[in-house]
Please model this.
Amino acid sequence: MILTISGLPGTGTTTVSKILQERADMDFISSGEIFRSIAIDLGLSLDEFGKLAEKDISYDRQIDERQKELSKTKDNLIMEGRLAGHMSLDAPPGKKVLRVLLKAPLDIRVRRIMQRENSSSSFKFELDKTKTREESERIRYETYYGIDIEDMSVYDLIIDSSKFDPETISDIILKAKACF
Model:
């Protein structure tokens, strides 16, 4: 089975995916961590790298192709990333794929991002930065793939992560996985 965990920055996709990896003994690949590591390797901030990725599709394609290939070859995999649910639509016939979307209000997501990154910037600054990043991604996904990131119709399960802690969210997903 493949579990895809998608959501905007600050929804808890990586945290939940890591809990699921441990509890379900599944392999795990994170497109966000790959994206961040490429930005670091290039000496760029996420904003700067996002702008570069808007102009050069090869960065997104590299990450996406890796996820697609793994979804075809692995039987027990968690794919975490903004487009993981969409990328798994190419999974071979008969392969079970449970597509999960985590969501949360923007202000909560920004506070989580600030805490995760130990940001000393103002809330307004981080809010604007998050909006800029999300708009950059929205443009790339629409331009490169024709995907409307706000279309939730590909997901089997949508969870508001502001209502539950990561352990409870993991419990919900594991229950759904068992019934799938």
